[in-house]
Amino acid sequence: NPFERGQTDFSIILGNNATIGKFELPISVQFATNPPTTIRVYRELEVGPEGFDLVVSTRMIGERLRVKIEMTNHTRRNANFDCLLFAGSDRQYERRVLAVAPNETAERNIDWAEGKNLIGKRLLLRAIEQEGNRVINYTFEVTR
Q1: Taking CA atoms, which of 28, 43, 86, 108 is between 20 and 30 Å from 101?
Q2: Dihedral angle computed from the Cα positions of residues 21, 22, 23 and 29, in that order, rounded to the nearest 10 degrees
């Protein structure tokens, strides 16, 4: 029947090293025609922690790079995140605890000496929820 409709549910399982952001998800569909026909469609998928918004910004202050971490909690419970900022293998990571009350935004700053060496590089922020199971990986490029 050329007008037959179908529906299939599917799951996507992400590892704990998945990064947050918007991604195009390719979906291939094969039709039982003669010969078989396959089409590919793309859907935008937003990966991130449900109930939380994370914004990271960078700016130079003299010779120092300031990384500003802002997290908004849209849930009804307090949340604490252990935030680790990695700036490559030649630098020690920096660590901050971010406590975010319900319907509030919390922020922390991390300053790096000789920050101009990091401009244009990709850094990784890993926020691990304490007393929870969320691990948020966020990569970003350092700008002035």
Answers
A1: 86
A2: 130
